[in-house]
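can u do me a favor
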């Protein structure tokens, strides 16, 4: 199963909104006779590739798959009938598929046809691999990864509103590689005004458009922002309220003319906003800042994972603290781990326990 998970990992950044899935066909002698992975949404599923690779050697063999075979017709046909038709004797799976269109139906189909099924092998690493997909299915919103770069004394900038580069080249490569893998990056309007970022994946290959989201309750994002010169990289969505759009129709029109998609909500509600973003096919979002947006997202309970890059630079006493007054601590993260990238250390962990 670990080999199937490693095979599935090759689809990272390519399969969304579908999960990453790997499959292996193994004969009675323990020889892998078929391999397959899901490469892109709308394309053949992992089981289809693995069974085609195995050919007649699939009969009487065991299928190892990181996710329950599907039993419904979507953009492709169902996999469970193909598995049964290929003569597979036993199916070993890491995770049940929580999609309401599957949700045990694949297993039921196979068992009704006398195929032995085993569930839960390497469940935890498989769930971590597909936590974006699982979050969408279980929470009705994308996986939200809060990313912050901090000085050694807990500041995000040299002073409020001052753009301050903190991370070094090695950490920056990791940050841009992550941008190449996720569906979206989100920032607050204050970050647009202070930093005027382009929010693109630089130095990393990206297979799909990158959605950029700006949370802007007062429509103060400049229509001349650099974001709007990078629309070839993906759409820019400005999330605001119905009231703000009604109070500032000229600013809303200017943003639309620059290429922004205006998403106006009835209330200033982050959970509602992320639910609407999910409806656009976004399954993972990196929340890059600023401080006010980080604080609001943590308070709203929509942050799933935190990535904090701690740098050796000190910025106090004039520096802007990340979350003054407490209320959140990196020490409270679950499954916390630290990794060095040059002079910087990435502290990462989960805010919630497993569903």
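np, heres the sequence
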């Amino acid at each position: 199963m670990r080999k199937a998970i490693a095979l599935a990992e090759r689809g990272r950044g390519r399969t969304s909104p579908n999960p990453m899935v790997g499959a292996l066909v193994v004969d009675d002698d323990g020889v892998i006779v078929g391999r397959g992975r899901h490469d892109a949404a709308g394309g053949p599923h992992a089981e289809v590739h693995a069974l085609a690779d195995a050919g007649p050697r699939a009969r009487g063999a065991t299928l190892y798959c990181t996710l329950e075979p599907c039993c419904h017709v979507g953009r492709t046909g169902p996999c469970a009938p193909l598995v049964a038709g290929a003569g597979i004797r036993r199916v070993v799976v890491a995770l049940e598929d929580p999609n309401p269109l599957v949700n045990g139906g694949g297993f039921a189909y196979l068992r009704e046809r006398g195929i032995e099924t085993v569930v839960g092998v390497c469940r935890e690493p498989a769930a971590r691999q597909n936590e974006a997909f699982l979050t969408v299915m279980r929470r009705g919103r994308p996986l939200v990864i809060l990313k912050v770069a901090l000085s050694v004394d807990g500041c995000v900038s040299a002073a409020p509103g001052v753009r301050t580069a903190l991370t070094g080249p090695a950490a920056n490569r990791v940050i841009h590689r992550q941008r190449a893998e996720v569906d979206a990056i989100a920032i607050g309007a204050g970050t647009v005004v202070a930093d005027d970022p382009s929010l693109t994946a630089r130095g990393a290959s990206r297979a799909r458009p990158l959605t950029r989201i700006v949370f802007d309750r007062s429509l103060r994002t400049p229509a001349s922002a650099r974001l709007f010169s990078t629309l070839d990289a993906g759409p820019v969505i400005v999330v605001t309220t119905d009231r703000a759009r009604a109070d500032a129709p000229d600013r809303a029109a200017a943003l639309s003319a620059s290429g922004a998609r205006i998403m106006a909500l009835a209330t200033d509600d982050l959970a509602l906003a992320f639910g609407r973003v999910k409806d656009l096919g976004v399954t993972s979002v990196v929340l890059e800042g600023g401080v006010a947006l980080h604080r609001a997202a943590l308070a709203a309970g929509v942050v799933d994972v935190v990535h904090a890059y701690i740098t050796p630079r000190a910025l106090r006493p004039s520096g802007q603290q990340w979350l003054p007054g407490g209320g959140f601590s990196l020490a409270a993260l679950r499954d916390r781990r630290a990794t060095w990238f040059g002079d910087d250390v990435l502290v990462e962990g989960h805010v919630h326990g497993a569903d």
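The chain has a mean pLDDT of 95. hope that helps!!
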